[in-house]
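Cross-posted from the bioinformatics board.
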Amino acid sequence: MSPALIAALPFIGALLPGLLIRSGRDVAAISCATATFIALLGLCLHIPAVMAGEVVTARFEWLPSLGLNANFRIDGLGLLFGILILGIGLLIIAYARHYLSRQDPAGVFYTYLMLFQGAMLGIVLSDNILLLLVFWELTSLSSFLLIGYWKHLPEGRQGARMALTVTGMGGLAMIAGMLILGNIAGSFDITDILQAREAIQASPYYLPALLLILLGAFTKSAQFPFHFWLPHAMAAPTPVSAYLHSATMVKAGLFLMARLWPVLSGTPEWFYIVATTGLATMVLAAWIAIFRDDLKSLLAFSTVSHLGLITMLLGFGTEAAAVAAVFHIVNHATFKAALFMTAGIIDHEAGTRSIARLGGLRRLMPITFVIGTLAALSMAGIPPLNGFLSKELMLEQATHAAWQGHPGLVAATATLGALFSVCYSLRFVWQVFLGPERQDYPHRPHDPGFGLWSAPALLAVLVVLIGLFPDSMAGWLVAASASAVTGTAQHPHLALWHGVTPALMLSAVALAGGVALLALNRRLLALRAAMAWPEAKAIFDAITRAVTCAAGFLTDRLTNGSMARAFAAFSLTVVLCGLWAFSTGGWQGATRPMLPIQPVPLVGWVLLMVATCCMVAFHRRRILALVLVGIIGLMVSVSFIYLSAPDLALTQISVEVVTVVLLLLALNFLPKFTVIESPDRKRGLDAFIATLTGLGFGALAYVIMRSDFAFSPISEYMLANSYKLGGGDNVVNVILVDFRGYDTFGEITVLGIAALTIFALTETLLAGATGRRLRNWVHDSRRAGDRHPLMLVVVTRLVLPIALVVGLYIFLRGHNMPGGGFVAGLVVSVALVSQYMASGFAWAQERQKINYHALIGAGVIAAGLTGIGAWFAGLPFLTSTYGYVKLPGLEEFELASAMGFDLGVFLCVVGAVMLALNSLSRIARTAGETVNLHPMDIDPSKEARR
Amino acid sequence: MELLLSSAIGMLTAAGVYLILRRRSFAVVLGMTMLSYAINLFLFSTGRLVVNAPPVLRDGAASYTDPLPQALVLTAIVISFGMTAVVVMMALGAFLEGGDDRVDMPRADRLPADSLSADRMSGDGDA
C-alpha cells in the first residue's frame, strides 16, 4: 500500500463517525477501527522491505516552487512509530468505546481521535519537513480538541488552551528552524537533508536552527521548563491521555530529534543542550511524581520523566545510546499506555483517582491489579520486565557520558532519577492496590467488563514478553529503526542478563534507594509541604495575563473609538517605517536627470497648490470646498495629459464629474458648514502630522522618480507583445482587458458590489426611522425658483445623442487608441446623469426602463463569459484572440474577443455609477422633492399656446 | 518637473491627512478624495515621467510611457469612485439615523481605559 494512502486512511476514517452518526457508537468505533486496521495492515506489508534496508517512498508535487512536496517515506523509524500509533490507536478505540459514558458524544470523540491519528501518522511518514510542519500543527490543533473534549469542565478548557499555547509557540519556533535548515541544505526533503550533515554543522546558522527546532521538540515532548502543560492536559478523558500523552503525541518531539539525529547530533551544542535538558527533566519530573496524589497526575509527571530519559539518550549522540532510546520508546509506550488505562479503569469503577482515597483494591479488582502491577513494575525497572532492559541500557550509556569532564556526574544523576522512578512506581502499586480494604470508596469497586480491560491486558502481556524474549519480540523493530536513526546498520543484542555490570549495580542502588524512599514517604510529604515550590501554572497564567494586558492596553489606547487617533498612529508609523527603511536602504543619489520645468505646467502646479491650500482653509464651507475639489481634479487630469497618459486623463475627468454630482446630492442632506470643534492645539498637532506625512510621501515620490528602475520593468514585455498577443495598439487597454484581465474582472465585480451596497443601505434607511424623518424633512436652504431651467433641459437633450455616440466611439476605438470600456462607461453615465439633473430624477426615470442591477449583472456575466470562451479553444481563462473582418461597404476592421470583455466593463461601470446616484436621488425624493410632470418648470411653448 | 509633481503629491497627501483627522464625516470624505488623488499620482509616477511620448504603439516611436502603472491607476480611479460613493452613503446614513455627522464613537460608548481589569484578560472567564 502506498505510504501516502496509509497516511490518508485515518483522515478518511475521521469522516466515517460523522457519516454514520445515526448508527450508534458501536458502528462509529468499528468503522474507525477498520480504517486504522487497514492502515496498520498496509504498513505491516512494508516490513520485509524495510527490514531489508529499503526506504519505501511516494512522491507528489504540491507546491514545488516553495519546496513543499507531499513526499512520504517509510523507513525503520517511521515503521516503528507507525506501528505504535496505529497499534495503540486500535487498542484505544476499543477501550474508549467502553470508557465513554452515555452522555459523551462518541462520534465527535472518534472524529477528533482519527484526525489526531492521521496528523501523527503524517508526521512520522513525511519525507518533507514543510509537510511535516503541516502535520505537526495539525497534532497541536487536534490535541487541543481532544483535551478540551469535556467542554463543560473548566480544567479541560484551560488545559487545552495551555497545551495549545505552549506547543503552538514551539511549533512557530520550529517553522523558523526548519526553514533555516532547509535553506542550508538546499532542499526541504528529508532524504536530501539527511545527506547534508557537514554543510549543516559547518553553517553559521547551525546553532539558531538547532535552538529553534529544539524549542519545538521540547515543548511538544514536555521537556523542562516546558513540562507544565502535560499534567494539565490530563483533564482530557483517559483514553486521550493514554494515547496522546503517553504513547504518541508527546513522542513527536522525540521522533523529530531522532529523525534529524544524523545531521544535528554529534556536536557539543547538541550534547549540552539536549542531554542536559533530558537529564534535568528526568530527575525533576520523577521527584515531583513521587508526591502527586492524583493517579493521572503521577503518571503524567512520570511520563515527563521518561521522555527526559529518552531525550537524554538522544542527546548523548552515540549510536549505542540511540539504540537504547529507540528501545525505551517502545517499552515506555507499552507500559505507560497500560498504566493510563488502568488509572482510567480505577477512576471509572472506584469513582476517584485520588491516591489518598484508594488502597486495598487488590482483592476487589484482581484483574486490574495484575495488569497495573506488571506495568508499574516495568516502569520501576524490575527484571524481567521490558522496562528493566531499557533502563539498564540507559544506565550503561550514562556511565560512558562525561559532562564537562566529570565522568560520574551523569551516571549519578541518572541513577537518582531511576531511584525516584522506583519510588513512585512502587507507590502506585502499594497505595492503590495493597494495604487494607476501605469502606469509603465513592463507588463499590469491581473489575470492569472484558471490553475495558482487554486493551491494557494485551499491553501487559507485551510488557512481559518483550522482557523475557527481547530479541525475538522487539529486536528486529529496534534494529530497523535504530538503523534509520543513526543512518548505519545496527544489530543490537538485547538480552535480559549481561553479567554483573556497573549498570546492574546502579540499578540495584536505584531499587534499594527507591524502596527506602518509599518507606520515608510520609515524612517526605511533610517536608515537601513545608517547602514552597513555584507553581508552573501560576507562572504561566501570570505571563499570559501580563501579555494579554499589554496587548489590550495597546489596542485600547490606539483604537479607543476615535478614528482620528487610529489614523494618526497609522500615519506616524508609516512615516517612521519609511524613514527607517530609507536610512538603511542605501540610496545612491539621483540617477535620472530632471525634466525641465516649462511655464505652462508651472501655472498648472500653482493652480493646484493654491486650490489645495484654499480647500483646506475653507473646508468648513462645504459647497465651496466641493468647487475646489473640482478644480484640483481638473488639474490632476491635465497633468495626466501632459505626462502622456490620455487614458488616465479621460477617466479622471469623467470620474470627477460623477463624484462632484454625488457629493452635491449627499450635501443636500448634510449640514452645509462644519463648525470649529477642535482646540487650536489639536489642530496644530494634526497639521504637524499631516505635514510630516505629506513631506514623507512627497520625498518618496521624488526619490523614486529620480532613480532608475531597480529591475527591468515588466511593461517591456507588454509593450513588445501588446499587438502580437492582444491585437491592440493601446497598451494600457490591452493590459486592462488581456494581460491583467483577471484584475479588471475582480475590479468591476468590486465596483458592482459597492453599488449594490449603496442600494442596500438606501433600502434600509428608507424602510426605518430615517424614512419617516425624511418624509417630514424641512430643507435648511432655500429651494431654487426654477429647478429645471429651460437652457439646461434643451442643451442636455441636444447633448445626449452626441454623448452616446462619443461613448460608442470611445468604446470601439479603445483597443487601439485612448479610450475603452471604463472611459466609455463613464462618459455615457455623465450623459445620463445630466438628464436627471435637467428634468429631475423621477421624470427621467419614467422614460428609461433599464434596470441598473441587471446592467451590473450583465456586465460581470459578459466579462466572465468572454473569459470562459477561451476554455473552448483549450486556452486559459481570459486568453483573448483577434482577427480582421471585412464587411461589404465598410473598410476592413479588427475584431478582438477582448471587446466582449470590455463590453462587460462598460456595462458594469454604467450600472454601478447610475445605481449609486439613483440611490441618493431616492433619498431626495422621499424627502418631499416634488415630482414634475413636465420636462421643465417654465415652458415657453406652453406660454405661447395660451 | 519631478520636483513639481512630487511637491504636488506631498501637498495633496498633507491636505488629505489633515482633513481625515477632522471630526466630521464630510471633511473625512473630502480628505479621502484628496488622498486618492495623491496616491493615484504617486502610483502613476512610479512609471517615471515622460513628456510627449506616444501613448499607443506607433511605428518609428523611440520611447513609450510605462503602460502598467497607467493601467493600475485607471482602475484605481474608478474603484476610488466606488469607495467614495459607499463612504458618502455611510456618512449620509449615519447622519440621518444618528442625528449628527461625527465620525468618532461617542465618548459614552468608548471603553473606559481603567476598566481593563483582570477578568477581561483571562479569556472566557474560566478562572
